[in-house]
Amino acid sequence: MSELLSYTFIHNALLAALLSGVCCGIIGTYMVSRRLVFMGGGITHSSLGGIGLAYWAGFDTTVGALIFAVASAFGIDYLSSSSRNHKKIQTSEDSATSIVWSAGMALGIIFIFLTPGYAPNLMTFLFGNLLLVTTSQIWWLFAFDLVLISVMLLFARTIIYTAADSGYAASQRTPVRAINIFMLILLAIAIVLNIRTLGIMLMISMLTIPVLIARLFTHSYIKIAVTSSILATASAIVGLIISYLYNVPSSATSVLVLVAALLFGFISKRLLRLFR
Q1: How far apart are CA 156 and CA 28, in angstroms?
Q2: Which residue has the higher pLDDT, 238 or 131?
Q3: N or C: which end of the chain has fewer CB within 10 A?
Q4: Contact by Cβ (8 Å): 24, 197
Q5: What is the pLDDT of residue 4?
Q6: What 3-state class would DSSP assign to 247?
Q7: Which of 6-10, 40-44, 225-229 has the highest mean pLDDT?
Q8: pTM, 2 dp
């Protein structure tokens, strides 16, 4: 195991695990509290369209993914809000998400198909790889985590009210839609920055499962955010160690670790209730 810590790319992977865990814990808590998990999945998968466009047009895939992720967030919000404001337009939030989800992935597949030659590193975008994280990506994650923590410190009460009960928050003249759009933009950025580490297919698991585990034992929004950040970080590190020992994909292993922890937490809570 000491050999594992002697490599620079392992240091980068551990830092990325820590920073991704903090990011997923904070964003995931809001997403689960506001019941935006399906929307998060839609934004995540639609970013494939931006990656495909970037490959086809020959520019940075991160930029392409960010454009599509943010555009998807705005598109879902616009379609669902139009449905609420105009009775003739029957587009629910789930329906809007499924439209954006399928359109983004379809465009990504078409652009990748039209790109001459083989699209390199495509599997990394789909399934992630902590071992391929670069120093620049770590700095971007660090800067984004600082932004997330600052936002939570400055606007914690407003964000918590909106996440817990948006209807009541709106009745108290809280700018619910503005907060929701702002958090969706942060969600889109978080997804793009973590695509290389967690992958499109596994990103939604890291955003939701740690929060679900934390909610088994506490109902405090802040405690859930902190606990889920710790759980996401720990699962990524455990997945990395298992990946090194048994030569299996680290991101997929991290998700399985979280699933096992969720089952253990659920069973433990049920047993505690029985013996009280």
Answers
A1: 15
A2: 238
A3: C
A4: no
A5: 62
A6: coil
A7: 225-229
A8: 0.86
Q: Is 183 inside a domain boundary?
A: yes
Phi (first) and psi of residue 113, to 5 degrees: -65, -35
19 occurs within a structural domain: yes
Domain-located, residue 276: no
Domain of 115, CATH number, reads 1.10.3470.10
Closest CA to 182 of 45, 34, 55: 34
Taking the C-alpha atoms of residue 33 and residue 164, their distance in angstroms, rounded to an integer, is: 6
| 129: helix, strand or coil | coil
* Phi and psi torsions of 174, nearest 5°: -80, 135
The domain tally of the chain equals: 1
Q: Which domain holds residue 21?
A: 4-269
- Give the separation between CA 50 and CA 58, rounded to whole angstroms: 12
Amino acid at 166: S
Mean pLDDT value of segment 172-187: 85
Cα(202)–Cα(73) distance, integer angstroms: 19
Structural domain includes residue 275: no
Tell me how far apart the terminal alpha carbons of the chain are, to the nearest angstrom: 41
